[in-house]
Sequence to fold (696 residues):
Amino acid sequence: MQRDLHKLRNIGIIAHIDAGKTTVTERMLFLSGAKHRVGEVDKGTTDTDSDPEEQERGITIYAACVTFPWKDVTINLLDTPGHVDFTAEVERCLRVLDGAVVVFSAREGVEAQSETVWRQADKYKVPRVAFINKLDREGADFEAVFGEISKRLAAHPVAIQIPVGQGPQHVKDPFRGIIDLIEMKMLTFGGDRQSREVKAEEIPADQRERADEWRSAMLEKLYDYSNELMELALQEEQIPTELIRQVLRKATVGLQVQPVMCGSALHGIGVQPVLDAVQYYLPSPLDVPPVEGRAVEQNKDGSAKIEQRKPSPEEPFCGLVFKVLPAKTGDIHWIRVYSGVLKQNSRVLNSGKNFKENVSQLWIIHATKREEQIDSVQAGDIVGAIGPRQSITGDTLCDPKAPLLLETIQFPETVISAAVEPESTADRKKLGEVLEMLKRQDPTFRAHENEETGQTIISGMGELHLEVVQHRLQRDFNLNVRVHRPRVSYKETVNARAEAVGKCNRQIGGQTLFAEVKVRVAPLHEDQACRVSTNWFVEDSVKQNAIQLVLSALKEAAEGGGLKGCPLWSCALELLEMPFPDPLPGEVALRIAAADAFTKALQSAGVTVLEPIMRLEVTTPEEHLGDVINDLQQRRATINSTESRGGMTVLEAEAPLSAMFGYSAAVRSLSQGRASFSMEPLKYGPAPPDVQAGFI
Ligand code: GDP
Ligand code: MG
Fold:
């Protein structure tokens, strides 16, 4: 059976850790009728948070996408990770979502990670609705958070609801319901957490004036998007609910506004309206622009030929692998289908890597009956495929007769590494296999062998990321391995511009190997790996090959490490010229000359070791602020701003990752467990002198 694409919603829930993503998800699944009891995070009974035993049970482990019905639509809810160490995962999910629900905590407000995620959603043009959760918590402040969304996120929030009261039961005016500003009704919810009931009643007299003000504010924000609505409003005519919804939908899908709702997911308040909003305001796969990709053949001038594919079953198949999960039956490749139809038992082309894969089974995971095997899936939908063996996250799969390459997913550099030591030969062998598999699943995770020491090194996005990997190695895969203390990943950059000529002039086996290469290095103000390039182009294809060879040798040298042995960063390395004597230099000579030019250029420019700097946000009760700041200063942090918010202070800082090891335990003990924080890689900056001195 084919699904009606108009009635499909591919969405994700994105949130700062602890804002309530899991709780909201559980509540949604419960409300959709899929689950009989609502799970609770604190009791470890949730569906979406994975547990190790899941692995034994089949393919639902770490399910990438759960499908459930809501009123007229079918919702594909994609799993998005909840921790800052996994920002890249959020990013890859955003690539394949059509819309998102962003959850904020009414107490903590817009936190560091919400900001990052919001910016990523902007980048990938993902329309969103916002849900301000935890209105039952002490210190909840709807208006403040609403204001922050507009100020800190430079967004265009439109409140379509307001809370009635806020805070816990014992305060004077506790949170007890919400006012729907579109229907102008007061909504109350079951009372019991296992209830699905929503009651819509008249707005109480003492709330009327406030509701009218917020409604006018909502309508005013929509004037820009509809003359009809503006005229009706100015003439003080009745505005049809349908019209408001239409205008809101258009502006939300067009990324012009973000409808804002509120509630308490834990107490079952306000989640039904969020699902309604997903239906009303978030796009279907047909509402988003056609996907663009590069055709395999190029334009005459050698530039890439861009092709568009509509989300229609009539077009040839193309899709993007956005997640690879292990299963007993073989890895499951989760694919967003952008065009055409993908059938069971078919062959597809991995267009970026030019090999074919089998698709033997297609699965969708229902919240109701766990999993279902299907024959085919069409444009706009999301499916788990079993069969592909070598494709990884970010790869395009397509109809071999109509090759197309979608833009691949970019992943940030790793900032931390640790050595792993297997305890036996058997463990060593298994470790190699497991690490390969983990790399396929998680593109932000790296593993390699240090050539000098023979040690296996794993690298990732932060302390927690490596902890999770360690946990999986030891617990999920029963490997006896010792993971050493993690170390930050250093880089190096050049201090100045410099040019150098590298030479190879050797007699080997009666032959003279001769080559010369001239390069230039220069510092760059960009936070990325060294750019290796040349402006030099020769028609002769043999000479052109020699140039390409030198470029790849320079690239390898830059990645392999400069004078301090760290990969080159924030700089450019340019091949300026090389003579072409007759006969042309061979590969060995060219490589030797390139390496020599590289080293000489670095020596003449001078180098500096860089270390990863993290962006950090700490939310702490005022009475612990002094201790938190003191501690941060000892960690070489720069505090950029402090702001108070309902009895809590939010502090934004930058600090070197090397000084932040073990911070979660430290901040907990400093604040008697009351402060929370988040951290994510920000940039690379010069390491302090003692670290510089350590690299000779
Ligand atoms: P996630 O990290 O975003 O997935 O957040 P969770 O759903 O795991 O929630 C974090 C904590 O906040 C848990 O202890 C939840 O019980 C609690 N929580 C979630 N929603 C609410 C809410 O609406 N009110 C209150 N008081 N607590 C909540
Ligand atoms: Mg969670």
The chain has a mean pLDDT of 88. Residues 612-694 form a domain with the Alpha-Beta Plaits fold (CATH 3.30.70.240). The first strand starts at residue 8 and ends at 15. The CA atoms of residues 14 and 102 lie 5 Å apart.
